[in-house]
From TrEMBL, chain A:
GO CC annotations on file: centriolar satellite; microtubule
PANTHER family reported for this sequence: CENTRIOLAR SATELLITE-ASSOCIATED TUBULIN POLYGLUTAMYLASE COMPLEX REGULATOR 1 (PTHR34252:SF1), UPF0705 PROTEIN C11ORF49 (PTHR34252)
Species per Swiss-Prot/TrEMBL record: Odobenus rosmarus divergens
Family the UniProt entry places it in: Belongs to the CSTPP1 family.
Protein's name in the database: Centriolar satellite-associated tubulin polyglutamylase complex regulator 1
Stored InterPro entries: CSTPP1
UniProtKB/TrEMBL annotation, chain B:
InterPro entries: Cilia_flagella_integrity, Leu-rich_rpt, Leu-rich_rpt_4, Leu-rich_rpt_typical-subtyp, LRR_dom_sf
Quaternary data: Part of the neuronal tubulin polyglutamylase complex which contains TPGS1, TPGS2, TTLL1, LRRC49 and NICN1. Interacts with PCM1; TTLL1, TPGS1, TPGS2 and LRRC49.
Entry keywords, A to Z: Coiled coil, Cytoplasm, Cytoskeleton, Leucine-rich repeat, Microtubule, Repeat
Record-given protein name: Leucine-rich repeat-containing protein 49
Compartments it resides in: Cytoplasm, Cytoskeleton, Microtubule organizing center, Centrosome, Centriolar satellite
Pfam families the UniProt entry points to: LRR_4, LRR_9
Provenance organism: Odobenus rosmarus divergens
Role this protein plays: Subunit of the tubulin polyglutamylase complex (TPGC). The complex mediates cilia and flagella polyglutamylation which is essential for their biogenesis and motility.
Region (Disordered), start-end ranges: 309-347
Cellular component terms per the entry's GO annotation: centriolar satellite; microtubule
Amino acid sequence: MLSPDRLALPDYEYLAQRHVLTYMEDAVCQLLENKEDISQYGVARFFTEYFNSVCQGTHILFREFSFIQATPHNRASFLRAFWKCFRTVGKNGDLLTMREYHCLLQLLCPDFPLELTQKAARIVLMDDAMDCLMSFSDFLLAFQIQFYYSEFLESVAAIYQDLLAGKNPNTVIVPTSSSGQHRQRPPLGEASVLEGVEASLFSQCLENLCDRHKYSCPPPALVKEVLSNVQRLTFYGFLVALSKHHGINQALGALPDKGDLMHDPAMDEELERLLAQVPGLVNSAPANPEAGCLPFRTPPRVGSPWRPLHHARKVDAESDGSTEETDESET
Amino acid sequence: MRSISQRAYKFNWENRGFISGDHIHLASSSMPSFPILQRSSEEKILYSDRLTLERQKLTVCPIIDGEEHLRLLNFQHNFITRIQNISNLQRLIFLDLYDNQIEEISGLSTLRSLRVLLLGKNRIKQISNLENLKSLDVLDLHGNQITKIENVSHLCDLRVLNLARNLLSHVDNLNGLDSLTELNLRHNQITFVRDVDNLPCLQRLFLSFNNISTFESVCCLADSSSLSDITFDGNPIAQESWYKHTILQNMMQLRQLDMKRVTEEERRMASVVAKKEEEKKRESHKQSLLKEKKRLTINNVARKWDLQQHRIPNIAPNQDRKVSDSSQDPSQLHGSTVSAFPEETGSLDSGLTNDLQGLSVTDTHLVEVDGDTLSLYGSGALESLDRNWSVQTAGMVTTVSFTFIEFDEIVQVLPKLKIKFPNSLHLKFKETNLVMLQQFNALAQLRRVDQLTIDPQGNPVVNFTLWKYYVLFRLSHFSMQKINGTEVTQNDMIMAERLFGILAHVASSELPQYRMISILGDARKKQFRYLLETKGKKPGLVNEENNDSKRLVGENTNRAMLNYTTRDFYNERLEEIKEKKKFCKMYMEDLVKEATEINMKNEALQKLWPQMFIELVRDAVIEIRNKNSYMKLCLQQITDQN
């Protein structure tokens, strides 16, 4: 905090970099909107709560999209909130369509635009059939990249188009049918028209871009790493690689690693507590160890989730009684 | 002649004491096939006008000589195949050829005085060659193979016609028989009867054992004022439940039906039953008219809805259209042509069609209460919730069905629904544009919902995998029993909680206090606003408010955060906030400006201060360098002040 860099910037720029003004404005706006309620318990407390929630990342819940998009911190908080709330959907193994994910997003932000979700879906599906089902983790990671770096990605798309259109003579697409002419092998060994652009050229352009947009692009080193593994790549191939890159995920800091995406012990405990409160579960039989494919611990009080409780006893009674009945009828 | 019934005109020769055959001598003649008949002169004198040749094993008619005065001739029970050799007997009045093998009526053209002709039990296929028998009184053709009534129109003196046991399939062509009193048509295959009203004297008509099944096929009988005796037994019509009273009601002139006298009681009953049927018919006619009107209205609403949803290209509607197109498939609509009447209603009878042509369907909505179901079609129907519903009607309604109405509009009237129809437990939505899970949040404000039916048609939300679980989660305080007809199991509830429980937890525990209050406050404010607007606040109502708010706070606060504001309201609110945002921005800018100015000044001060400090010190030191002159200066300053 006491670094000399901080004092090197002129005032407005400093404030802008940290988005202090955004939060201050929003705080005052919230204050104005709810003055009757807030006046009851004091303005100081309000500001405390407000900035606390900003730190914790809960300030974006149920807010309008313009606010959520305003700062990188907001975006990251939103991603984290989305992960937290709907991780259970992913854990359940459900594959959903793009529209349904959009619906879930809208539960947290009522006016979230459809285009962003569509773009995220395109990354997962590689621009293929848009009605395909997607897994939670795939979607979430792609959505992260798309949402957090939206502006960056737009510029990248523009660059890509330029390169494809052949602004740079090196990227003329050469069919590999004539053996003497080919300089690079296509990435998948297909003997068809080369897709995408040359990675090194692309990388150079992206570096320039990153220098210009210092604040909302992925760490350039990591981008270079992604691009160094392949010779050629398509736009969506690049995005998919970005989304699946551990380093970038960590740099963003919103979501846990891909492997841990389904783990959240704190929330799982909370969930168990909530499940215990579902009416009718309290007086049921102890859990079957083999029932339930989900890894969370079942406390002894909660009944087996897969046995229909109101049928269980009846069936037993009938099976017990029937043998007696047949015995009697035979005599 | 006295009145003749079927049997009476069978002239029984035995009773009269005539002996058959003994006095007759059949000699062979010069012509090989025809025997010649001769009678003794005593016989001729005794029985000059009658001759019987019954059971004589005759295969042909013999030549009868010298008997020109003969008036009655009997050929019963022989094997005669052709009527011949009797043309000279021009005084013949009675000719009996019952039970022979005659295939064709012929050889009678000279018998102009003939009054009774008995040709029963022969093989006659056609009624013909009766042209000259204008005096015919009785014609018996039963037991033959006749298929058609023809060539009898000139028999204006005919009183009895027997065509029983023939092959008739229908009855018509009866004009000209102006004296016909009795017509026997038993044991045929008759399916319909016509022209009987052209018989001015017909009193008895026997139609037993035919194939008549409806009254319409014999409806001409109703117009015959002379008919007093009729039989229908052995016909399919006699098995019908409405047989007796339909006949009696349509033929008031009848005295005997199926050989039984018609009593006054029966006639009265018949008219009563007929009136009832008339009533029923009228009632059902009215019902189908109403139903049709309802169907057309619904189609109209559907069409407007489709237009609204931009499913059909917007064509300028034909203003004169009276009957809307019933087709719901958008691809079938062709511009503004007026469809005369949709094919679907082909089953309606013509009377109904005529009435409906005049219906002008301008209704844009439909409200219908059918026992326990309230159905609303079209957004205009929502206004009907403001009506003064009787407590009884409103109390009986347990199901409310919304069709062709935007869900966002329904949301706004839910408070009204809650109050006016307190027992509504089952909600049905079809073509209501449910697209987001969030919209279900709006249903939480109702008192209680047992069943929910979301029709896939027009509600894209049903395509989502998780929609049912979300509904169960958000509306868990209702303990719903059924969704879309399937029972809600414990598993479903658990799954719903598992999927969305954390969302509720986050929404309730991680939101800052002021946000919670503002969100809750909004919802409660809306409710209270509506309740204040309702007229006639009864004390009971106030209590309900308190209970509701208590319940809102007690149960499910964690889910109460999940609200739904319709898109329009949301945008409105955002618009309102814009002003405030602008103000905040300016305010902050001012603050920032102040702060930066102060900061700048501070920094500038920081920079200049060392220098300033040195100068201050230097000035002070220079001042004090000469102690004496400094003391004098200070004292001077003090005295100057005084």
